[in-house]
Structure prediction request, 357 residues.
Amino acid sequence: MFLKKLKISNFKNIEEKEFSFSQINCFVGNNGVGKTNILDAIYYLSFCKSFFNNNDFHSIRYEQDFFALHGFYDFKGVEEVYSCVLKRDSKKQMKYSQKSYNRLSEHIGKVPCVMIAPNDHVLITGGSEVRRKFIDLIISQQDKVYLQNLIRYNKAVEQRNKLLKSFQLYHYIDEVNLLIWEEQIALYGASVQEKRKEFFKGFKQPMNDFYQFISQNKEDVEIEYQTFEGDLLCLLKENREKDKIVGYTTVGVHKDDLIFSLKQMPIKTHASQGQQKTFLLALKLAQFDFLQKNMGVKPILLLDDIFDKFDFERVSRILALLEDGRFGQVFITDTHLERVEKMIGEALKDKTKIFKL
Prediction:
């Protein structure tokens, strides 16, 4: 997958921009000029949403009525055009070759992409929802059935929660309707759980290998998939009374979590800042590796403020992977032109395009 050209209109602080890209693309300029927003536009064309904002309308440029993104990709010699348009008074539209998708979920996986950004630390410090989304985003890009089952599962949980909340107001619950949604939760939840377990079997070792490659030591890191045990339908029935009191579903794969550890101790509390950064970088590189192996294409790699985020040694290890041809197309942001030129060096110079913003 290769992004040849990108057109941006009214996206965040960017009024109108058009870029033609090479294999390695560096955006250099002061803070606030829009470097990260360009990467976010590329991310948007992969996932139909911003990496940084939950509210789509915050991505529309100030006092404008819409934003539009158009990406022209080369996929095994065939040009594919993807567009995303959002108007303030209408729904977001994602298009492939001028044709709108019926559902945005149909687009996920068309343009595989991995973002490494300064706020990745929330994977360690944030709640379990952040880590579940990380898993789901990886698996969904290469497994449409998983994505659809996850959507159906979340809808069933939402409907069950509505019944539980209504019980708190009216002290009555439709037991037949409740059972219907519980059966849906159990059906799709079992499928989601099975896929997540299968995913971790092939993810743990590459992630550990990347950690050791970057840190150049023998520390072992571990990821544990924490989920419920037993028959989900039985668990839902057992927890009905408690769930009626709290007003939401307390058991299921929407409560799953990842436990990160270093030398069998929690990374959040026992790892240094440098070890945490190395862990997060290894996690994202393992994500890239998994997608490449399972999709047969190299995802687009977005590196936001990579030189400020990591020390020279860690950046050098990343660049060593670039020189080995491990990655496909790469986009990098930084504030210092000299630093970028030094890091890229002669080996990658002919493959690199630098944009001064």
The first helix runs from residue 35 to 47. The longest strand covers residues 2-11. The chain has twelve helices and 14 strands.
